[in-house]
């Protein structure tokens, strides 16, 4: 049997106040230097006697104002998604899982129609549809395969 609790003999009682006190007076570093390289050292005199930044008090120089050109157009030609054949909402808003579920439900509905029309069993109709559309198992089919299977089933139902 496994337990995450420490055994009584392993558990040493600690004084909570002792955890707050430091024994050295200085905290240990959590980092260690891996290497060091000596470089030339230059002394900088700071601001070279410039105690106050007086130039900030003056107004901006109007001769320094720049007029920028308009930004370039974004991403080439700006055709609307409808012009490209992409719909906003509807089928385009569905996730792949939702689309597969919808296609499987439509396939199941048309299989029921084919069973009633042909007199074959569900297994026979499904097997034939899978063979004609190149689907191994309907649970492992891609969206394209499910659409192909549905098209085959609709053609058979129209006969």
Notable characteristics:
mainly alpha, 4 helices, 159 residues, single chain, flat
What does this protein structure show overall?
The protein is mainly alpha-helical. The protein has a domain at 90-158. Helix content is 35%, strand content 0%. The chain is built from 4 helices and no strands. The chain has helices at 16-20, 96-118, 122-133, 143-158. The radius of gyration is 38 Å and the shape is flat. The two termini are 67 Å apart. The mean pLDDT is 77.
TL;DR?
By secondary structure, the chain is mainly alpha-helical. It contains four helices and no strands.
Low-confidence stretches: none
Portion in helices: 25-40%
Work out the radius of gyration.
38 Å
The profile of the biggest β sheet is: none
Provide the succession of SSEs: HHHH
In terms of quaternary structure, what is this? single chain
Give the DSSP E fraction (strand runs of 2 or more residues): under 5%
Total strand segments = 0
Write the layout of secondary structure elements.
Blueprint: H1 16-20, H2 96-118, H3 122-133, H4 143-158
């Amino acid at each position: 049997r496994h337990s995450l609790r420490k055994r009584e003999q392993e558990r040493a009682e600690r004084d909570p106040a002792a955890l707050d006190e430091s024994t050295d007076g200085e905290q240990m570093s959590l980092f260690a230097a891996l290497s060091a390289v000596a470089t030339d050292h230059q002394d900088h005199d700071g601001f070279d006697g410039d105690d106050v930044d007086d130039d900030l008090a003056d107004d901006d120089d109007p001769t320094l104002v720049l007029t920028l050109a308009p930004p370039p157009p974004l991403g080439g030609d700006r055709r609307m998604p409808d012009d490209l054949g992409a719909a906003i909402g509807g089928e385009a808003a569905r996730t792949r899982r939702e689309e597969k579920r919808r296609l499987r439900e439509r396939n199941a509905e048309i299989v029921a129609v084919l069973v009633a029309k042909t007199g074959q069993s569900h297994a026979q109709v499904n097997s034939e549809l899978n063979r004609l559309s190149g689907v191994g198992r309907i649970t492992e089919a891609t969206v394209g395969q499910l659409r192909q299977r549905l098209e085959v089933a609709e053609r058979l139902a129209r006969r």
